[in-house]
Amino acid sequence: MNPGPTTPAFSRRQFLRDGLRLSAVAGAAGLAGAMAGRTQAQTTVWQIDPAKCVRCGNCATKCVLEQSAVKCVHAFDICGYCQLCTGYFEPEPNELTTAAENQQCPTAAIKRTFVEDPYYEYEIDENLCIGCAKCVEGCTRFGNGSLYLQIRHDRCLNCNECAIARTCPGDAFRRVPVTHPYLLKTDTH
Amino acid sequence: MSTPSENSGFSRRRFVERLARGSVVAGAAAVARGALQAAETNPFAYDVGPLAKTDPAWVNWHEVKRWSVGGRAPRRLAFGPGDVLHVAAESQVLRFNREGAALPPLATTGAVTCVAVAGDGTVYASLRDHLEVFAPGGGRSAAWESPGPRTWISSLALGHGGLWAADSGARVILRYDLGGKLLGRIGAREPGRNVPGLVVPSPFLDVKVHPDGLLRVNNPGRHRFEAYTADGECEGTWGAPTAAIKGFCGCCNPIALAVLPDGRMVTCEKGLPRVKVYDAAGELAGVVAGTESFPANMKAGGAPGRGGLDAAVDSAGRVHVLDRVTATVHVFAPGKAGA
Q: Do B178 and B325 belong together in one domain?
């Protein structure tokens, strides 16, 4: 008598299940290994020293990314909340309104909000900012210098040889520890 | 039998010649590339060039002298008896005679932000949040209490039997008696008294006592001067925001003032570093010095800690301008150059 098919010791279902588990474990291990390797390799990242930046415009045009990884950032504790913000307005605006002809940002990346007479708050939209430093120059020339450029590390590819650093006339680009990736302004005076 | 050079068809001489030619071509290419890069213009330039040019027709003062104060971070000027110029610089009050020769300085316990000198030679030097007093002989005679944690004193003036201190941090003018007792504050926003409030984005609040008896205070965030009584009533204002020569440029100007013997006012601006004279009604009377007189200051910009000017007037009516960037005092006299 034929006893019929015997149950195999290792079924196809079990094989697939174990295979999937193994793949997941291997994938996770690979990812962890890659991250560890990257962390080990990248102990430093590029950053801009605001004290050396000469607002030349290269950050907008020399980055290998289509839209530069350099963005304007705003130190609110340094800002004067000026009604006539020279980072926001043209050097000689027709009037102090948000009309396009009065703004100097080429992409309208600065949002102006009334706080109380005569104070206004200015906020950077990083999705629009191209890092041209036009506002930085206006703020540094006439104001407190609360607007300044920084490399945003959620965008930067951390190239071995940064294309902007290579052409920076102020020698403002330098490697900083990955644990302290930003050079933030903290004091005005 | 042929020589080795004939065999190769490429002599040593020819190799050296070609190498030299190649070097010249490569060098020329490198120079051309450098020139091209230098000629690259910034398409995003913040152009203040046309605004920075001073119309010579307005310039009716000329520079007669200049000297370096030597200190690394001078901030404010004030004249004392005998036209001794006092300069607040780092942890010292530097002193110079009429000829610009250095006299013994006064050492303070911290960075000096501004200074005032009484008729008897008593020197009032302000640190960031309090004052130190030096007797006419030069010894430190007192240190006054700080009026509050936000205090950032940026200018001093003597008058009405006391001392006035411009507090940029608290945005008020403090009134002291000469013993150091705080008598009151003026300039804080009081709509009921027609006091609009001082708008001071950076530590450039200045105060002077005018010969007419009223205080003159700059309100940089509103681009104007305000005249106050000793009780804090605002008696009038003048000034307008514009980069044109008749007004005050940028976000927060003027930054300093001085008073001429005839009551006209000398004003200083940052960003576009220029010094002008206005009559009592606030009409522009002339330009003492345009941006052309302060190229390093113009390049540095006006952010706190970078640039700025201050002015003081001696007994002969000459305007002394302190360029903070170059730590230089420029002396200007009335009249066009060469006239």
A: yes
C-alpha span between B184 and B160 (Å, rounded): 13
Q: Kindly state whether residues B189 and B288 are assigned to the same domain.
A: yes
Determine contact: A107 vs chain B, CB below 8 A: no
Domain that holds residue B8: 4-39
CATH number of the domain enclosing B144: 2.120.10.30
Binary contact (A142, B251; C-beta < 8 A): yes
Q: What is the pTM of this model?
A: 0.83
Does residue B159 contact residue B216 with C-beta atoms inside 8 Å?
no
Q: Is B302 on the interface with A (CB under 8 A)?
A: yes
What is the residue-level pLDDT of chain A in tens, covering all 189 positions? 455 555 556 777 787 787 777 777 776 666 555 555 455 467 999 999 999 999 999 999 999 999 999 999 999 999 999 999 999 999 999 999 999 999 999 999 999 999 999 999 999 999 999 999 999 999 999 999 999 999 999 999 999 999 999 999 999 999 999 999 999 998 655
| CB nearest to B221's CB, from A118, A137, A189 | A118
Are B35 and B53 part of one and the same domain? Answer: no
Are B171 and B273 contained in the same domain? Answer: yes
B339: in domain: no
Of the candidates B251, B184, B256, the one whose C-alpha atom is nearest the C-alpha of residue B218 is B256
Distance of CA B19 to CAs B6, B15, B16, B161, Å?
A: 20, 6, 5, 84
The dihedral built from the CA positions of residue A174, A180, A183 and A189, taken in this order, carries a sign that is negative
Q: Does residue B39 belong to the interface with chain A, where contact is any CB pair within 8 Å?
A: no
ipTM of this complex prediction, to 2 decimal places: 0.83
Q: What whole-number distance in Å separates Cα of residue A116 and Cα of residue A126?
A: 25
Best A121, A130, A136, A189 member to test B by mutation, with max B CBs in 10 Å, is A189
